[in-house]
Every structure is written in C-alpha cells, then in structure tokens.
User: What shape does this take?
Amino acid sequence: MEDYGGSDDECYYSDDRESLEGLENEESDFHWVPAKGPTTKIITKESLLAAQREDLRRVMELLSLREHHARTLLIHYRWDVERLLAVFVEKGKSYLFTEAGVTVVEQLDIDLPLTLSSTIMCDICMEDVLGNKTTRMDCGHCFCNDCWTEHFIVKINEGQSRRIRCMAHKCNAICDEAIVRNLVSKKHPDLAEKFDRFLLESYIEDNKMVKWCPSTPHCGNAIRIEEDECCEVECSCSLQFCFSCLSEAHSPCSCLMWELWSKKCRDESETVNWITVHTKPCPKCHKPVEKNGGCNLVSCICGQSFCWLCGGATGRDHTWSRISGHSCGRYKEDREKKTERAKQDLYRYMHYHNRYKAHTDSSKLESKLKETILEKVSISEEKESRLRDFSWVTNGLYRLFRSRRVLSYSYPFAFYMFGEELFKDEMTVEEREIKQNLFEDQQQQLESNVEKLSKFLEEPFEQYTDDKVMEIRMQVINLSTITDNLCKKM
Assistant: This one.
C-alpha cells in the first residue's frame, strides 16, 4: 500500500512559512504532492487484499472473533473500525452482534461433526439425508448441502454474496463464508471465484472512506482517506477528483455548486433564457419569432402577422391606422420587469461563464506545455553551465495548472455564492456586497499572478544566459508561492 498525502483543497497551498529555498529543492517529479493535508492512501489491485486483512486482523484481535464474523461486522458497519468499536463500548457485544447478524454459539455439540450413520430430515426439501451430507451454521440451523448450495447460488447471482443469510425462517444470522465457498466451488467453481471477488471488493463498495478512482479507462486503483471524506484527492494515475461526489476536482465550488453549474452549462436553460429575451411568441402558432428588421410589424412563418411592441395579432382590430380596444403604448410593468430580469440573469451568467471558459481553455492549452517545458529543461541540463537543478520549472508548471484550475472554478463559485439561488437569505445586501468585493479583489490578484507565472514559464530559457535564467527562476519561485497563498486566502 502506497502512502499518498494531501487533499486537493490543501494541495493548492503552501505553508505561510515556506521558504523560497524549500520550494526550489522540492522533488522534480511532475506529480509532486505536498505533505500538508489529510492523509490519503492509494490501494492498488495487488494491495487490496492486504488492506482488507489489516482491518480484519484488528477486529479479530480486539473482539476475539473468527475471520468471517469479523468480516460480517465490518461489512455491516461499512468497514468503519472506529465506529464498530464505539458501538461495542457503548452498547455491548450482544447489541453489536445482533445488529450485524453475527451469531456466536458457545455450545460444543454444534461444532461436532455429524456421523455417517445418522440421518436428518432437511426442512427445506423434506428429505432424509445422511449426516455427512448436511451442514450446520453457527446459528444452529442444519440443512442438506444441496439446499444450501442452491440457496448460495441464487444469492450470489442476485449480488447478495456479501451478506448471505441463513435459510431458516426469521433467522438473521450471516452464513460462514468458508462454508459458502466450499459448497459452491464443488458445483460452480466460477461462481465461487465471483463470490470471493465480491467479498474482496466489499472493502471498497461498502466503505465510505474508500472509493474507486473514477478514471476512464479504470486504472484499477482505489483511494482511502483517513480523515474528512469531503476533500479532493489525486490518484497515482494523475487523475484529481472530488472524493465526495467523484466528479472532477472543483474547488472552491461545493459539490452542489458544481452540480448546478454543470447542469446549467449542459442543458438548454440559458438557450431558453435567450429566447425569452430576444424573441416573442407568435399569437397563432406560439413559436418564437425573432425580429430581423426595424419595422415593428413582423410575420411568422405560419403566415400570421403581429405587433412586436405588444405581441397582439394584426388584422381587422389591430392595424397601424386603427387600434381597437387597446394601445401598444400603455406600460405593462410586470411584462417589462420580467423581460428586464431575464436580460440581467442572462448577462450575469454570460459574464461568469465567459471567464470560466476562458481559464478552462487556457488550462487545456497550458497542459500541452509539459512536453515543451521538459524538452527545454533537457536542453538546459545538457548545456555547460553552473545551473544543474531545474526542479523549479516542473514545480512551477504543476502549481500553474492547479492555480489555473482554482481560478477557473472560482467563477461558478462566485456566481452562486453572491447570487440569489442558494444563499439569498444567508446574507444582507450590504454583507453580500462587502464579501463579493473582497472575493473579487483576491480573484483579480490571483488572475494577475497566474498570468505572470504562465508568461515566465513560456520563456525560451534554454536560449538564455545563466544570469537571465536565474532571474526567471526567482520569478517562477516567487509567483508559485504567491499563487499558493492567494488560493488559500480565496
């Protein structure tokens, strides 16, 4: 199991006490991750079994249980060892076992094997079966092996293999996984393998502190966090994602903000808003009509003419020489307010969306810099100069990517934080204005420094003298630290 530190929220930022020398001497690995932040671990396919067995071992030792009982308890408590132990301390072993369906019978005769000569009637198939053809579970219920096998096969195919209950009426005991594996493998070896895989993967599927990396195609890794499940993490495959909602890393947006923003950008809500602002419905067929000339007498493709000013159909009662029953010049406050509000909402959305998209596009273009920069570093290292360490370049590039992403997502954050959709009643108008001004000041400073950092990293430093390279190096180190701190403050 590989240790891997730092949530994405924390990875943006350096410690305020961080020195320039400290930044300069960081490892040159492109996927550098600061040590600061909640501890995370990457669980590979190979280390999954070991990670699961570690938790099993803890529970088995603390509660003096067999492995399948410990697994049953952990699956019920979603592999949260601390919560399991807290329930044990607060409510006792009896409550703990009953809730999870664990039955530990102390009677010795239950563990004794049935003799070859003895027979028992199976209450499922109602047949008399030899003792060695039956199996008794920990709960004491005994049925023939054929009935048990069929029961297990059905449950595994239904996807319930993690918690297969006893067949007896109203018995909540969970069957011993070793017995399930043994009986099923005799008839369906492939199904027994499936059963083992389900048990192994339950460590991830049922564990709120462990989740599969959402990479496509799947890298096969899972991420385990040690503290808060509401954080952002990075897999060894380089994918950065939100541990809570498994979407792309979206700080400073909350999961709800990002969900709403993604939907807003994806669906046709703003197209509808544009139609509301720039078109009017035909009074006959009700299709939206856009005016493409100066004349306020417009015609729909259905043949109907109508007045653009009021939307009324023109004809016998409404002509430009005679108006019957109403006047286009009369002010209708509700309609005007609705149209004006739609315009304001559209312009506000366009303001934030344009800036969000501009930084997202910049980030995509800058991601292509990696190969160019590494090539420039390679050329510089081959030159005969006193400069040998170019880790500041890759570290600066890495921080540029992260800062650019934070900057990009700061616009949907501001759209919802200072709008009326989510936090209308959370702040007064004055408080909102003050907080928005402070946030936008930080946003503007970050924007300015990110652009400067991008500019310096694009410099052809492989062609420069050592003194000029040293100057660029100090600028990149300074700007990397500044952008970290600005992200933190934002």
Remarks:
- The longest strand covers residues 39-43.
- The radius of gyration is 33 Å.
- Residues 1-37, 107-113 have pLDDT under 50 and may be disordered.
